[in-house]
Amino acid sequence: MDKARIHRLILDSLAADLQLLQRAAQAAYEAATDEQNIAENKYDTLGLEASYLATGQARRAAEIKQALGLFENLRLRAFDPAQGIGLSALVLLAAEDGSEQRLFLGPEAAGLKVLDEGEEITVISPRSPLGQALLGKAEGAEVTLTIGNSQQTFEVLEVH
Q1: In this protein, which residues make up the domain named Transcription elongation factor GreA/GreB C-terminal (predicted)?
Q2: How much is the pTM?
Q3: What's the pLDDT tens digit per position in 60-118?
Q4: What CATH code is carried by the domain that includes residue 140?
């Protein structure tokens, strides 16, 4: 797997999401401030609702902009078994049921999914339970997560 290509896919996805959210926030702002949406009575809340929507979209755009900046400054590192898994690691995990998932440990944007040559890669952050559990681990390590009353065990198959 080409980690630099995956990094570029993440950057492109974040940039596209940011553009889309900025346009949506602008449209919601324009709807909120449009003369036609001035409340005529206490039950007329279209302008207020558009204002809430614009605020939420602007906040989400700011989060994506921050993640984009962190990914732009992320230095991709080759895996060092002595240090274990850290930021920019590309990890292949196997669950007890035999299913596998490929993860990219990034500074933000947890949950973002990108496709590389038909394979899905999910971004996780060190703040997530799985991200925390993976830090410092090497190939062959077992990672056990306890979430609520359930326990899941994964094996680290590959690290790049």
Answers
A1: 123-160
A2: 0.86
A3: 999 999 999 999 999 999 999 999 999 999 999 999 999 999 999 999 999 999 999 99
A4: 3.10.50.30
Supply angle C-alpha 113, 16, 93, rounded to 5.
15
In the chain, the number of structural domains is 2
Six token digits for residue 116: 């590389």
Q: What's the confidence (pLDDT) of residue 99?
A: 96
Name 160's Cβ contacts closer than 8 Å, sequence gap at least 6: 1, 3, 78, 79, 89, 90, 91
Of 40, 72, 104, at which residue does a domain stop? 72
How many other C-beta atoms lie within 10 A of the C-beta of residue 155?
15
* Residue 92 to residue 158: CA distance in whole angstroms: 5
Largest CA distance in the chain: 67
